[in-house]
Amino acid sequence: MGLMDIFHKKTPEELAKEWKKGLKSEVRNMDRGIRKIEMEEIKVKNNIKMMVKKGQEDNAKIVARELIKTRKAKERLIRTKAQMNSVILQLDQQVQQLRVMGALQKSADVMKCMNEMMKLPDLQATMRNMSKEMEKAGLIEEMVDDMMEDVFEDEDVEEAADEEVSEVLNEILENVKSTRVGSSKLPQKQVEEEEEEDESELELQKRLSSLRN
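Above: the chain's sequence. Below: its structure in token form.
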């Protein structure tokens, strides 16, 4: 115990304020991570399209599987962000009760959210330390790490890969089709260029269809 701890022990309200600050900081990190993944997703989809055009169907499938895993990572970030916001709201409620009851009240919901957030590798250390503080402050019970969800994640991805790859490729194809709309009002030279691209896109469509089959 440090010298400052001897003279000043943090009150439950001060602890709740610190937890909220830490969680809000992590929420901002989540937002940056989600935006980064979304930008990368655009690049990967363009790479898949180019691979199919070049006849590199096997490589396109491999990259499409990586895109699926990336999307799952984004989904987990979004879920974790929602859980963080939920804990922040519950901490606000706890502070209100604290002023009436004089102590933090145990919360099964907070404990559940903290346990889920610890499944994200980048957050494990932060959430573990915060959960220990919450336990000492009487907000949650003793926590036990539950990491089994990650053990089967890769297997689940592989089992559903063919169907999901087909959906990814179909999505790319639909986006390609949408860019062709309205080309009839363009100048003649550009129309000719578009017609050449149409032939290329027809070939792309055939390749995508063969991949999906």
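The domain at 7-143+154-212 is CATH 1.20.1260 (Ferritin).
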